[in-house]
Amino acid sequence: MPRIFTDAADTFIPRRNLRHGPLPSMMVIMTVVTGLVDAFSYLVLGHVFVANMTGNIVFLGFALAGAPGFSISASLAALAAFVVGAALGGRLFVHRAAHRGSLLATAASIQSVFLVVAFVLATQTIDPSTGGYRFALIGVMGIAMGLQNATARKLAIPDLTTTVLTLTITGMVADIGHVDKLPAINARRGISILGMFIGGLAGAILVLHSKIYLPLLLAAIGVLAIALCARVASRTSGEWSKP
Q1: CA-based angle 222:80:40, to the nearest 5?
Q2: Domain containing 194 — which CATH number?
Q3: Does residue 141 sit within a domain?
Q4: Cα–Cα dist 19/145, whole Å
Q5: Which of 13, 48, 101, 108 could be a cystine partner for 233, CB 3.0 to 4.6 Å?
Q6: Residue 51 and residue 146: Cα distance in Å, rounded?
Q7: 71 in Cβ contact with 236 (< 8 Å)
Q8: Which helix or strand (DSSP H or E) is residue 28 part of?
Q9: Structural contact between residues 98 and 124, judged by C-beta atoms closer than 8 angstroms
């Protein structure tokens, strides 16, 4: 079997003694979650992301320039919530950093609570983009995604940041010609890009053609599944579990 397929398989069914153990497959699911959540926030709550802060900073510039459809307050709320979530992740690392599986399990458990709250809020109104629901949803989802991003940064699994793909795409193209880097890195990068695409596509289909709150339900279920899997994995140790 070509090495690129072996490396792709290792992302989902890792062999023993791999550096990151079972963590890459969980990060792929987190990447899908990002697509689901940002599909909901952008399509339902207006031109605002809760995971992609690069986009929000650009949107804030658009809003300040007076471009229609963009909101200064919504962009600032998403940025503020994301910062709170990232700070929460920073505090969590102080107590859980000794075992990467335990860290992910705790972070995902907390994140799933925020996503469940977002799901419940979204089911309580016909139009979540109006009134206090909009900012409540931006707040809880922004915190959840800030925590996720901080956790991914701490776990430091190459090419699986779960929220940012610009450098992933750049690296995939820039490394062409470096034969020693292509198989393992490009396999994981391709999976990461595909995961975000699938999440965004599924989220958009559900928002546009079904119940608008279903992307949040799927995201909450996905993160809760990761929390449970990481908790089981944290009962074991090895090279993958070390920071």
Answers
A1: 40
A2: 1.20.1250
A3: yes
A4: 25
A5: 101
A6: 7
A7: no
A8: helix 23-44
A9: no
Please check whether residue 3 lies inside any domain of the structure: no
CA distance 5 to 44: 38
From CA 193, how far away is CA 162, in angstroms rounded? 9
Q: CA-to-CA distance for 2 and 190, rounded, in angstroms? A: 16
| 241: in domain | no
User: Is 16 within a domain?
Assistant: no
Instruction: Check pLDDT > 60 for residue 216.
Output: yes
Residue range 105-150, pLDDT digits in tens: 999 999 999 999 999 999 999 899 887 899 999 999 999 999 999 9
User: Is the separation of the CB atoms in 28 and 191 below 8 Å?
Assistant: yes
The 3-state DSSP class for residue 148 equals helix
Overall domain count for the chain: 1
Closest CA to 102 of 224, 230, 192, 196: 230
Are residues 59 and 38 in contact, defined by beta-carbon separation less than 8 angstroms?
Answer: no
Both tokens of 179, joined, read 């034969």
d(CA 88, CA 11) in angstroms, rounded, equals 28
pLDDT value for 82? 97
Question: Where in the sequence is the domain holding 38, given as residue range(s)?
Answer: 23-235
Q: Rounded to whole angstroms, how far apart are CA atoms 207 and 36?
A: 10
Rounded to two decimals, the pTM is 0.91
CA–CA gap between residue 68 and residue 76 (Å, rounded): 17
User: Within 10 A of 68 (CB to CB), how many other CB atoms are there?
Assistant: 7
